[in-house]
Amino acid sequence: CLSEALYFEARGETVEGMVGVAEVILNRVDHVRYPDTVCGVVNQGTGRKHRCQFSYTCDGKAETITEERAYDRVGKIARAMLDGTPRQLTEGATHYHTNAVAPRWSTRFERTASIGVHHFYRMPMTTAQR
């Protein structure tokens, strides 16, 4: 699930950009407001209009891997992150978006980093982690 998410959400980014997206997913796994598995986080809201947490899961397109080299690359990053690589790039971010959009929530959350075309945000501290 993490490899797939990185492939569809960040394969065109630098390694740092892909790691940032992986950090968001893993930070959500650790957060009480989100499912406690990577697949649960990635697929949360899938199939419900405007409820998808990750746009590729609700764009109506089949999730078809067409770039094997890119998939191998994101797979290595996913493995490293799942094996415990420290999450230091996004300072605990639980959200991100590309610079092409400006979601409403981005004005309420603290921006913690900008990497490539993504801006990263942390939810207010009023909600605890697991």
Characterization of this structure:
With 130 residues, this protein is α+β, with helices and mostly antiparallel strands. Helices cover 35% and strands 12% of the residues. The chain has 4 helices and 3 strands. The protein has helices at 2-10, 15-30, 38-43, 68-82; strands at 95-98, 110-115, 118-122. The protein has a 3-stranded antiparallel beta sheet with strand order 1-3-2, with helices on one face. β2 (110-115) and β3 form a beta hairpin. α1 (2-10) packs across α4 and α2 (15-30) crosses α4. The two termini are 21 Å apart. The model has no long low-confidence stretch (mean pLDDT 91).
Summary, kept brief:
This protein is an alpha+beta fold and 130 residues long.
Strand order within the widest sheet?
A: 1-3-2
Oligomer: single chain
Distinct helical segment count: 4
Mean pLDDT score, rounded? 91
Q: What is the beta-strand fraction?
A: 5-15%
Q: Kindly report how far apart the N and C termini lie.
A: 21 Å
What attributes characterize this protein structure?
35% helix; 3 strands; alpha+beta; 130 residues
Topology:
Layout: H1 2-10, H2 15-30, H3 38-43, H4 68-82, E1 95-98, E2 110-115, E3 118-122
Antiparallel strand pairs: 1-3, 2-3
